[in-house]
């Protein structure tokens, strides 16, 4: 049985991962800006035993809330061995940004990169002590290549991919394995804002939940670092 911290679990990919891991018998600790956002959903705590799920107030821009989340999880479950980062924000700020766009650019980096770095950093000791630690980060294909002119978003994801590579290096001898999942179009609310691909032809959130489930079952010597997913052909 694993004890898993999951960010961004109020919808989409994170919600599907949380539900699948609950059904698998694992314990999950979820960080949410709005604790009411999962009410009536498949991970509504009212539908699960108190020993299996913990909701925590978490804002990616509030370092104190991240610290409290980790502390609450350790207090309730005695520790944890897995961190899955699904939170993120879309930005359409282009390379030739307008004066005044700097705030959105910084906000994009703070949420998509620095907040994840901070959460991984303060979780590191607990993940290492588990002797079978896992970090899974939903990076995006935009962290591997840049298409179009989403400069702020893609740059934040390239930075995140670099962080994953560094964590892989550091974690190798510290009982932590890191996996960066890099999908292109996923059928989520974010994709609706920028893609014209039919929803049925996109990667589905449940597909990524299945991939995460497999990763968590693999032995330390067989955990993949990078998983790239394309729902459409790219040159």
Automatic annotation (TrEMBL):
Annotated GO molecular function terms are: oxidoreductase activity
Per the UniProt entry, the signal peptide is none
Q: Does the keyword Oxidoreductase apply?
A: yes
The organism's superkingdom is given as Bacteria
Instruction: Indicate yes or no for the key word NADP.
Output: yes
Recorded hits in Pfam families, A to Z, give: adh_short
Arranged from A to Z, the UniProt key words for this protein are: NADP, Oxidoreductase
Q: Which family does the entry's similarity section mention?
A: Belongs to the short-chain dehydrogenases/reductases (SDR) family.
PANTHER family attached to this UniProt entry: DEHYDROGENASE_REDUCTASE SDR FAMILY PROTEIN 7-LIKE (PTHR43391:SF14), RETINOL DEHYDROGENASE-RELATED (PTHR43391)
- From the Swiss-Prot or TrEMBL record, give the protein name: Short-chain dehydrogenase/reductase (SDR) superfamily
In its UniProt entry, the species of origin is given as: Prochlorococcus marinus subsp. pastoris (strain CCMP1986 / NIES-2087 / MED4)
């Amino acid at each position: 049985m694993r004890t898993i911290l999951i960010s961004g679990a109020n919808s989409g990919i994170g919600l599907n991962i949380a539900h699948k891991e609950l059904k698998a018998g694992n314990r999950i600790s979820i960080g949410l800006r709005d604790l009411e956002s999962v009410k009536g959903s498949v991970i509504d705590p009212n539908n699960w035993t108190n020993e299996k799920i913990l909701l925590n107030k978490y804002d990616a821009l509030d370092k104190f809330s991240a610290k409290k989340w980790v502390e609450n999880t350790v207090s309730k479950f005695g520790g944890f061995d897995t961190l899955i980062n699904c939170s993120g924000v879309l930005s359409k700020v282009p390379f030739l940004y307008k004066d005044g766009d700097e705030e959105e650019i910084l906000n994009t980096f703070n949420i998509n990169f620095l907040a994840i770095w901070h959460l991984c950093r303060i979780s590191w000791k607990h993940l290492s002590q588990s002797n079978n630690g896992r970090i899974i980060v939903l990076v995006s294909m935009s962290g591997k290549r840049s298409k179009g002119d989403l400069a702020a978003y893609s740059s934040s994801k390239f930075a995140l991919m670099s962080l994953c590579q560094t964590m892989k290096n550091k974690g190798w001898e510290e009982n932590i394995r890191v996996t960066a999942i890099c999908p292109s179009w996923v059928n989520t609310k974010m994709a609706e804002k920028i893609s014209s691909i039919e929803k049925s032809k996109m990667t589905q959130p449940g597909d990524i939940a299945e991939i995460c489930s497999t990763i968590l079952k693999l032995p330390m010597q067989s955990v993949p670092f990078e998983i790239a997913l394309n729902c459409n052909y790219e040159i």
